[in-house]
Amino acid sequence: MSTQRSALRCLRALLTAVALIATRAHGAETDRIVAVGGAITEIFYALERQDRLVAIDTTSLYPPQALKEKANVGYFRALSAEGVLSTRPSLVLALQGAGPPPAIQSLIDAGVRVATIPDSPSAQGVVAKIEAVGRAADANDAAARLAADVRARFDELAALRSRITTKRRALFVLSLQNGRPLVGGRGTAADAIITLAGGENVAADIEGYKPMTLEAVAATAPETIVMMGTDAPPPDVFSLPGFSGVPAAQTRSLFIRDGLYLIGFGPRAPQAARELMAAFYPDAPVLSSPLDGDR
Amino acid sequence: MTAVVEPDTTAIARFVERRRRRFLIVASGLAAICVITFVLALANGAVAIPPGKTLHILIGAIVDHAALAGDRDALVLLDLRLPRVLLGLEVGAALAASGALMQGLFRNPLADPGLIGVSSGAALAAAATIVLGDRLLAGAGEAVPFALLPIGAFCGGLITTLLIYAIATRAGRTSMATMLLAGVALSAFAGAATSLLAFLSDDRQLRDLTFWSLGSLNGASWNKTAIVAAIVTPLLLAAPLLGRALNALALGEAEAFHLGIRVQRIKAATILLVALAVGASVAAAGVVGFVGVVAPHIVRLATGPDHRRLLPLAMMLGGALLVAADAFARVLAAPAELPLGVLTATIGSPFFLWLLLRRNRSVWS
């Protein structure tokens, strides 16, 4: 038992030494950053500091060139310590939830600086992300400008929201495998974006992403269905039992956007919320006017 | 001579009569339980509909369907709850009958429909649809994604079973031992492949996989209920006809053959029926454990091992058990849903243990 443990300790020390030598050999490269989490990569590109990135993860789908230009260390919840180390990073910027924890610990043991960026689906959360990435990317001024811009857009959104008298009832459907809805309840990024867009989440009685009874779908009578989509044509949601009779089916109100855009809470979050708001209130021109300086 | 034989015949006759009476009592009891469960499941759900309104809607559905148009309660009751409860009956009955057939065929109290690979094959196909479906279907039509999973699961289960059957059959004879081992091997392989797919999946797909593997009757529709009925009904009708053959098989294959049972045919027919019925059940409801294994045992404890009686009673109990579990799944966490597999096991297993302890005798006797 103890020999095994000491052997493991030796191995870990050896690996650390190898990793240290590897980093020393490229001592000049202080800015070899690995971004783990789509929103982080997005901020790097928005700050035009993408040259500091050596690798990103598979959730970094925006801007589209990111995954072509940078090495890919895999899915952010299933990182391999060795894979990340092979990119000889000086810093790993990981979105909260990145893991698994042993892989993160191995990175730290190997002498890599790992900074965890909190991921809170709110206006303040996006600003905090931008500021944290700005510090790491040595771009505080650009980050301050971007953060101010994002904050202004959120404030504008809040002003529009205050004019809404009757909130639009919306349901976020994460998936519909075999006609079974998995919906976004309280505490989810889906709930946050609906609220930011001035809507009311009809699944707020549910915590997290959970299956919802079709009866409850019919009873909560959502006026808009919100889904994450790909390039595929929109699924025929309203032909399904439970969905066929809801108010959203009458107006065929289905809002589908890319997942990172819609619930990733990166710098495009105000724009996503604004678009969703326009879909919620199509008859209120004040609310549906396009955002200034659209990106 | 007659003086010696006579008391024996009366003893046997009395035993047969006792068993017959017992069967009638249990059968009528189970029928009552089925009806009560059905009514209660229909009367309860996430949406509260007063009993009077429920009755009104049900009568209205038969008498004047058009008058109910636009009524939300009518939509919930007729389009969501009724097909769901019926689907529960079908799936529960099919799983319990399949379990009883497998236990008889393998002459093993632990046999369940999963033994011939239907469940693991269906699970693998479902996982493949969930994880790879989005990519493969980027250009496909609108309605396809919703039907893809059940169709895939059904085909996956059937293909796996046929493969296992082919492996175990040599020169027109199927070895049950080989079949069992082939089932174990292919199930392990399918399990590994499913895990690989889980590894490749993202958060959303992983959630889908998890909830699918826990089973649910959510997503029931009249279409689904009708399709499952079309596949499952032959099994439900044919199963009791296999009772005599399975009783003979309990003595051993050679003995059954000498009693005039066409053993190979019975094996092939049983396996095909089970594969079809379980495949359809898994496709519609996901993997629902426990019902298939334990419903037949509960009935066996009550009425004895005669398959002619065991099969119809097990179907009734299986149907009632699943409908009851699903009613709890719909109501307990409403508007969310509890996984069905969790409830079948939590409701069924304490009851089963209580029965075992109370009867204090072998399940097989």
UniProtKB/TrEMBL annotation, chain A:
Keywords: Signal. Residues 1-27 form the signal peptide. The keyword Signal applies. Gene3D superfamilies: Nitrogenase molybdenum iron protein domain (3.40.50.1980). PROSITE patterns: FE_B12_PBP. Residues 32-284 form the Fe/B12 periplasmic-binding domain. InterPro entries: ABC_Transporter_SBP, ABC_transptr_periplasmic_BD. This is Hemin ABC transporter substrate-binding protein. It comes from Methylosinus trichosporium (strain ATCC 35070 / NCIMB 11131 / UNIQEM 75 / OB3b).
TrEMBL record, chain B:
One of its GO terms (cellular component) is plasma membrane. This is Iron ABC transporter permease. It is a multi-pass membrane protein. One of its GO terms (molecular function) is transmembrane transporter activity. SUPFAM superfamilies: ABC transporter involved in vitamin B12 uptake, BtuC. InterPro entries: ABC_BtuC-like, ABC_transptr_permease_BtuC. The keyword Membrane applies. CDD domains: TM_ABC_iron-siderophores_like. It comes from Methylosinus trichosporium (strain ATCC 35070 / NCIMB 11131 / UNIQEM 75 / OB3b). Belongs to the binding-protein-dependent transport system permease family. FecCD subfamily. It is found in: Cell membrane. Its main location: membrane. Keywords: Cell membrane, Membrane, Transmembrane, Transmembrane helix, Transport.
